[in-house]
């Protein structure tokens, strides 16, 4: 199982490429007068995406030292690289943002610094996904946080931007500390820093572990989820989001609402796999040997995430209803989406806590979880990230509105960023393509079929509904809990439509007052269009993304594996009456 | 691969409007007339295709089979089985045709009314047509839901951009209300899918397979099973009741209607409201029979409340369009009543009443739009004596009014009569003794609704069309009064008023208005005179759909066994009607009655 260090390097190649590209950007910007930071970033991402080590065989698991490479890690890595390319484009379009007034001109090398920092951030998310060690997990997470502080501080030099970056910095430190404390407790329970080791001990049923777990497990789970909640912007660590998003530019807001959330969800799923054992633990699971500590781990996990999910969705959406500022509104909506994602995590944990991931004792057949919460979460995450990159790409592309200024009167006033919903009034008349794309992204976020957001919500609702499907629905049972969660999910989807529609209505139903300059640069526009194409592809044929998410989720929560490999009973195997000529 | 196979024919009909929308977009630079002509041609082609398809489908559909079934994989992966699965059967065939017919009307009534951003308007109207055709042809739950929701998006923009003063609020309210209901319905449908999957091992979303699966393994309707069937029924009810709308959930409708452009109103009243009842017939009755039976008395009550409430509120309206909007609430009450009676005659009457209301409400909304275009007011108090100036317009209005209030010989009579007859049958002989009084009361109250309906409609006709003329005489070409001017797309400051204060006929119907109304009038008469043409093809499917519900009702609260009607009903349900022979074999007098009407 354990490989030589050389092959470890080969396997971690893409992350190494990202870091090297970051160094090239830093050094080139500082010493060689390199200006094209974002170009370096895109090239780095492209090279990383082409790294030969990516071609792991589907379904295989390779563990090497602190790394473990399975379908999940590969899915996240590909996804992060794709999203990273989009975000880099949005960021590059956002580079004029520093020059809010003529006095503040962007420093020459700042784009290189930003690009390098951004590459490190991507490497961090990707490392988290393949971490097999508490230390690497934490290091990866910090590799996400620290570049975020720098990016927030680099881009904005005005007071609002400073406030945003400071606020984020201090809260993030608290969250990291919480998370670290949770990890320490986990180490106390498992007696090792290796996730595989901790997992197998948790599931072993060893009496000593069970005794320790009884006292430490709630603390560990609570602290870790509390720390992750900050990255997700989930209740109770959600309140910073509107202020920080408002202070950050569209590029940074796009980054904040995607990458930390991806990292947070990835960490949650990796930790959840401690209870299920992931792919490696399957054999033990199929023998039904899961110790009480493993079950307790999953149980705490789903209880906490389910409650947080319900609260986060509702609070996020209700807050969003009250916003008039676009970035604040999108911040609140990103809180709500964290809630939807947590529904999937909770469903994954609960489904596997039921019977150790084995098929449920069905009534007639061995029917089992169809997609699984983990896969549904990953699918939703992809749909959410694509739409979010599109929205912020569009906003970055639109840039500023025309100032109220007539030639010859006063000196030209500073440019004003597009900030409120009213600034988008009549966009369908002035920038029809942007308005159409923005409307598509927003409707997808709202979950209007057949856009990707709808497929995502469909998967999540199914995952929640199928928890304990065959059990009796008695008051207080897990099944009723998840039925309620599904109802809360869809009602929130309807609430969310209200504020997304307000933006669409502003763009299409009102007439333009001042119009927008659309000065954000080509990159952001390209990012928007690429996101639109991705949306169209997933809309028409969701299957490739669906299968990929299903495979990746299966290596986290094997309960879903059987969903993929299930052989239905003969009765329904009969050829379907198809009159397709 | 035969391009003219029924399946391909159906797909072509559904896709034609989308192609037309693209054509309208490409022709955008050629000006209004090119765009509207292309839209008209598209809807006419679609209508022709739909009519041909229906003619091909009639033999199969009358025998109770689905026609033009096609399916292609969409999301078929592991246990998932979501397909692009289309087809027509007795429940959907007339609604499918109605959608194609009313789209022509919708384009024609917008001929002069929409001058502003015509490309967007006609493209959205055509996309809406595609979605409406699709929702009735869908044979897969997800596909149905996709089309269902996708009818909202074009109408949202149609109301919000080309509507009247309060259009933004109306558009958002319409969207949110319908969405809030439909997401719950969606959850209910997912539960059905999962339930069926837990018995077959396959996550099939095919409606026919689900119906069969639920017939074999009904959702539990007891405390042990957590009353699951009941909850699923309530979830579906939330979605469909908002769409119908059943009374406490109706508040979006008058607002949306009043603010919508005429073309949007025609589609909304004519087709979109029908999706609710169609949903009950397609999902609730066959899949959740016990819950439907348990809820039937309450639904019947809500239907009657809707009839009376809608009628009374309509009586108090001063705005002609709002009056007709409330009359829609009232008339959809008959449809709710009909399906809740769970009596074959009543359910068939309700399905026919869907078409009837589609024709008459669309016609009336179109006519109100025409009156508004001419006189820039919809206020009944400001109108009067139109009959003298526009005799054909008045004739059409009165025709659709008579259709709407159920004058014998016109279509409305047949539907309402069958619904009421079925309700009385149910009350006399199909329900347990302790319920008989309540059922009778409700049926009688519904008859009172018919009288109220005649009252408010005829009163409005009298005030608007007869008596002294109150509105400024045909002010075409003049600046319209300032208050009535906002929003309505490109009002009508066009120059078709040839000569100032021209002779009377200038106010009368123009050719495109004839095209909009004449087909509707034709069908109003056709259905009124020969209802069997329309009842027979859907009879078998309607009976199959309602049979489980009726059986459950008979078991739950039917008359005591000594009363033969219950068993008789059950037998009638079990045997599908033979096509063409009779509409209602168990009730020969009724059939004979209809054929004697002319």
Entry keywords:
heterodimer; A: about 575 residues; mainly alpha; two-stranded antiparallel ribbon; disordered C terminus; B: about 600 residues; three-stranded mixed sheet; 22 helices; 3 strands; about 70% helix; about 5% strand
In short:
With 581 residues, chain A is mostly helical.
Topology (elements, then pairings):
The complex is a heterodimer of chains A (581) and B (598).
Chain A lengths: L4 H7 L1 H19 L5 H13 L12 E3 L2 E3 L1 H23 L16 H20 L4 H22 L3 H32 L4 H10 L2 H26 L7 H8 L2 H27 L5 H5 L5 H30 L4 H30 L17 H26 L1 E2 L14 E2 L9 H4 L1 H15 L5 H14 L12 H32 L12 H19 L2 H12 L6 H5 L4 H4 L8
Antiparallel strand pairs in A: 1-2, 3-4
Chain B lengths: L5 H21 L5 H31 L4 E11 L2 E9 L4 H17 L8 H20 L3 H10 L1 H11 L4 H34 L2 E2 L2 H10 L11 H16 L8 H8 L2 H26 L1 H27 L4 H22 L2 H32 L10 H4 L1 H15 L5 H19 L3 H33 L45 H19 L1 H27 L7 H10 L13 H9 L2
Parallel strand pairs in B: 2-3
Antiparallel strand pairs in B: 1-2
Could you estimate the helical fraction of the residues of chain B in percent?
over 70%
Give the tally of β-strands of chain B: 3
Give the N-terminus to C-terminus distance of chain B in angstroms.
Answer: 46 Å
Order of helices and strands of chain A: HHHEEHHHHHHHHHHHHEEHHHHHHHH
Structural class designation of chain B? mainly alpha
Compute the number of helices of chain A. 23
Strand order of the largest sheet of chain B: 1-2-3
Helix content of chain A: 55-70%
Order of helices and strands of chain B: HHEEHHHHHEHHHHHHHHHHHHHHH
Task: Work out the radius of gyration of chain B.
Answer: 23 Å
Question: Whole-Å distance between the termini of chain A?
Answer: 51 Å
Q: How would you name the oligomeric state of the polypeptide chains in this document?
A: heterodimer
The number of helical segments of chain B is 22
Mean pLDDT of chain A: 81
> Overall 3D geometry of chain B?
globular
**What is the number of E strands of chain A?**
4
- When the domains of chain A are counted, the total is 1
- What's the Cα radius of gyration of chain A? 24 Å
Poorly predicted regions of chain B are 476-504, 562-598
Principal-axes geometry of chain A comes out as: globular
